[in-house]
What we know:
Elements: H1 2-33, E1 47-53, H2 60-68, E2 77-84, H3 90-95, E3 102-107, H4 113-120, E4 128-132, E5 137-138, H5 142-147, E6 155-164, H6 170-192, E7 202-206, H7 220-230, E8 234-245, H8 251-271, H9 281-295, H10 297-310, H11 315-339, H12 345-369
Helix pairs in contact: 1-6, 1-9, 1-10, 6-12, 8-12, 10-11, 11-12
Amino acid sequence: MWGALIALFWLSALAVAWTHVGYPLFIILLARWRPRPHQKGEVLPTVSLIIPAYNEEAVIGEKLENALTLDYPRGRIEIIVVADGSTDRTVEIVEGFADWGVRLLFQPERRGKIAAMNRAVPYAQGKILVFSDANAMMEPESLRALVRNFADPRVACVSGEKRVRADQPVQAQGESAYWRYESSIKRAESVVNTAIGAVGEFFAIRRELYRPLREDSIIEDFVLSMQLVMEGWRVVYEPEAVAWEEASPTLKAEWERRARNCAGGFQAVGRLIRLFSPRYSMVAFQFLSHKILRWLSPFFMLLAWLTALVLYPFDLYRLLFWGQTAFYLLALVGGLLSVKGWRWRPLWLIFYFCFANATALSGFWRYVTGRQNVAWKKVR
């Protein structure tokens, strides 16, 4: 029995260490040692910028002004806003941009982002479909940077880079740090083989390759991009195609965002199970290391703590038990101090790491109980 518990402890600990530290280091080093570059070129295909929107009166005007100032030939870009069940001034504000060529598709019944995307595509005329959230503000050169990757005929989907403004609240600092960390992994994966998932706030796809998604998909960008990978296409990450977002306004809002994404992650595993065929060996390895083990991390963390507690009679595991316990206590202290407005970077990083893993537990519960609504619950 002791041998089985010891094995369970180390497997759990290694799973957490691999997905959060080992794999990122491995893929970054592999990107340097064995890059697989793809072709880029100054191509200017026609583009349809599609913006799904639900009650976005606070940001939709700024978003359209942002879109109209992109450094891209005006005659080669069309802008389509899908107002999905909006009951505020979103429709009125978008109609005010009609003279600038902005098209509005209004759907009185709210059906969610995926339904909005599916509805817009038949109306789109561009060879490249670009999807961008209403609150994601694109840098002027971002669209050119995004589409230049389509000079390579093997590329089906290109993900932009999401950046979060690091304001004072702990969730803003944590979310910003997380996305810098996540972006470094996605860049390396893109260089080595293929990016594991697109960033839903800003990504592009060849129009002829768009497949209408099931409307109950929670993380549509991830499922859509990985389905293309299974068809033999490449998904790449473009770090110069930058879209900025404000951080979640509160820890509660950040909890909601992350739990929803984790629920979608568990859903996606079932829908992408064919990725574990031997023909997708490298992609399966990336998917397992980057995503699945990360979504399962809180379970491994709990197992490591519990097995160390059971193995307490042994000196090494007594030390490992108290080391883990101290780590979680530091996370608690970091969270309490952050709420009070006092922040020390090491403490709030520990807190955000534990907070993020706790949201994965919530996401798993939502998935298995069917409690995660497809439509996004607004938190701004």
